[in-house]
Each structure stands twice: as structure tokens, then as C-alpha cells.
Amino acid sequence: MREIGRHFPAPYQPFLVRDDFIVRADLFPMPGLYNGRLEQNHFVLDNRFDAFLDERLAALERAPDSYRCLDESEPEALAEIYIRLFRVLAEEYPKYVTLDEQSLELRHLDLTADLTDLLHITVSVRDSAPAGGLRVANWVNAQCGVTRLADLLALAVQEDIVIMRLRPDGSHLAEALHVLLPSAWNPLEKLRLGFDAIHEPVAESQRLIASAGKVMKAMTTKGPYVRFGLSLTTRPQLDCHPDWPKPWDDAWLTDPDQLARNVTVRIERQTTRPFPDLGRALFTVRIYTTRLDRLGSERPDLIPRLASVIRTAHPAILAYKDIAHYAEAVADWCEMMPLPSGVASG
Fold it and tell me: Which pTM was predicted?
């Protein structure tokens, strides 16, 4: 069976730009060089595409309203945003995506879409399409309205997609969320909420909330920007919706090797892109997961930095992230790791 992502490169290992758990906007201009890598694309296709597609489709099939949440009060504006995002994807991956006024071609999925009516697109599959492409076409064609266009984009990339809207009166809200691989939060709870209300439950977020208006103005009029987030989890899957339990065994606290095999470092690469004429902004979230012991063997230079992040975290942040019961043990494991030559301790 042909794999969709077979020609894509292996994923890279992102990390925080600042080695702490302080909650702030941290919007870094893009393109820009961060952690030695040029960050310039909103969408990053890699050879884990098939694994991502499996989990993303499974999320939609399991509970679509818990992962995909759209305010369809202005469907034409939403459709225009999604078409512009397909244009961004085509600019970043012209080998795989082409777009004109009438049609869209997604060569990595072997799909084409008729764009004559953006609120009622039709997806066609080629005979050579991989099984994943056929599943995408069948799913999208079973949906209604602008949801078809939105779901097609969400399944053509590996990023989760949020559309934020800034109204003329200065109010703001999450207008559309395709968060198919959430990090322990429920997307449905964020629909139509403002930037400040979205972040109100986050521990130590007072400064971020106080600057909500400025952040939303920057997102919708400036940029693009990139930022990074970090968390730990004992659920190795990409989908960490709060509906799913997180495995835990107290024995891991007394066995560092077991702990390292069962803790996953979860990095979020996030980007923003403004659409000022529409008063809207794209916010993407791309998940990168690496088991702690693998991170130690493959990127030992990041281990002292991870220890520093954990040691500097406010207890309320560790509690909010539900890692307070094992964060110190992870930091201890990191500090026990021998440092590679030329790497300074945190």
C-alpha cells in the first residue's frame, strides 16, 4: 500500500526559544533563524504524514464536534480564508499543491476539488490514490457547507488550524477551530471565545491576558510569526484530548529508566499569519512528540535545557499541565544524563 508521506523529509526536533515556562506571547518574526533552523513555512510536511492523517481522521470520525468547531455565521468569509490558506500551502509546496479559481489539486493525496461553489465543493479521487486519500475524499464529500473546504485543508496538512477574528469594535473571538490533536484541552470550549477568555484557565497567564488586545492586533495586522510551546505527557499518541486518560504508574518515580520510556516530550510549533482586509488571522499548531529516552539519545544537547525549563516553572504551571507529580523526577533524570562534549549545563 502506497504511503502518502514517503517522499517527505524526516521531522526535525524543535524546541523552545527561551528555556523557561513563563507564559507570554513570544511571537518571533518569520522567516527567522531559531535553534539553528530557518523557520519560514506555516505548514511542514514530513514523513510522519500518514500517522498524522490516521489520528486526525480518527478524531473526526470519533467525535467531530469535539475537535472541529466552526462559527458559520459568515460562511463566505470563512470560505475565503480557507481558500487563502490553500494558496499559502501551494506557495510553500508547489510540487504537491496547485490552485486556480475553479479547481484545487492535492497531488500528495491524489485528490482534486471542484471550487466552482466554495460552500459546496466536490472532491474527486484518482485511481492511483492511496488509501488515505480515498478516506479523505469520502469523509469530505459526506460533510456539508463550508465544513467540506475546512475539513479538506485540515486533512491535507499536519497542522491544527485556528481562525481568530478581530471585529471592528475591537472584540475578538475564535471563529473556527480544527484542533484534531489537542494537548489536553477541549476545542469545543474555546469556540467564539476571545483571546483573553481562551487563556483565562492557563496558570500564570495574567500578563498574557492583559495584553490580549495588542496580541490580537499584532496577529491580524502584522507577522507572520512563529512561537513554540512545551509540555510533558504520559500519553504517547498525538491526540491528547482530555477525553483520553493518561497512563500512570507510581513505580516510574523510583525507576528513572522506566520514567524516561513512558514520558513523552511534546513540542508545539505555532505560527500566525494576518489577513487584515478580512479582520482575521491564521493560528497553526503543529505537534512534535519524542519519548524522553529517545530525546536523550538523539538530542542530548536539549536535555540540560529541558531540565532548566522544568526547574524554573512556577508550581501552578506544573499543576495546570498536570505534570506536577513527575516533573521533578524528569528534571532529576535530565540532570543525571552525561553531558555531550561541548554542551554546558543549564
Answer: 0.95
